[in-house]
Amino acid sequence: MIDAPLVLADGIVRRDGVRGQTLLQPTTFALQAGDRVAITGPSGSGKSVFLRALALLDPLDAGRIMWHGAPVERAAIPRYRRNVAYIRQRPALLDGSVEDNLRYPFELRTYRDVHFDRARAASLAAQAGRGDDFLDKRASELSGGEAQIAALIRVLQLAPEVLLLDEPTASLDPVSSHAIEGLVHAWFDADPRRHASVWLSHDPAQATRMSARHLTMRAGVLDETARSEIPSAHQDHQEFGQ
């Protein structure tokens, strides 16, 4: 018996509530444990609309999201978002230090069963090439790359099953981009039979590095018919729920 997908988008549709324009055509997409998916396509093609719908950050106009074979009901959305984590292009950080931002999720009811582990957070920062003082830095003084690293650590420390990454390195320098990619690779490798990721990118080379399955999006249509198993160099070696 084949296990149910971690996440299944079953005929989901998104429309512009004001203009009535269909932003995401009826889409069915299955994300299995162990999948590393990249989606490329031009700006405005619907990639972010699809990913936000998959994360249940925006209401669906049709279809449903299934998680481990069961529909995600309203009461289960916080738990779903805890396990299916969305990383946006420009992270939202709170005033205060990096550590204050990393501690924030543990103040939410969804995470009342777990506690902040400073050593774990520092270890993740070290993996990204940040020094011992990174957790003490003021969020307002971080570079764009450092802010994205902090936002990713904030999610990774919560041990999600799935990462939905919405062009997380689009405006970053190569060093910061490499650090983000490295953190995601390390997270995936920690439990590849339980983890899966979807990475949106404009960069074909990055899409190759960060995936083993490559889809395209155009005019709100996710091209599942032109799937390709593309070689990956890796093979060789919101939004919190409330």
TrEMBL record:
Residue ranges of every copy of the ABC transporter domain listed in the record: 7-240
SUPFAM superfamilies: P-loop containing nucleoside triphosphate hydrolases (SSF52540)
Keyword Transmembrane: no
Keyword tags: ATP-binding, Cell inner membrane, Cell membrane, Membrane, Nucleotide-binding
GO molecular function: ATP binding
Record SMART domains: AAA
Stored InterPro entries: AAA+_ATPase, ABC_transporter-like_ATP-bd, P-loop_NTPase
PROSITE patterns: ABC_TRANSPORTER_2
Name of the molecule in the record: ATP-binding cassette domain-containing protein
Record organism: Paraburkholderia phytofirmans
Organism lineage: Bacteria, Pseudomonadati, Pseudomonadota, Betaproteobacteria, Burkholderiales
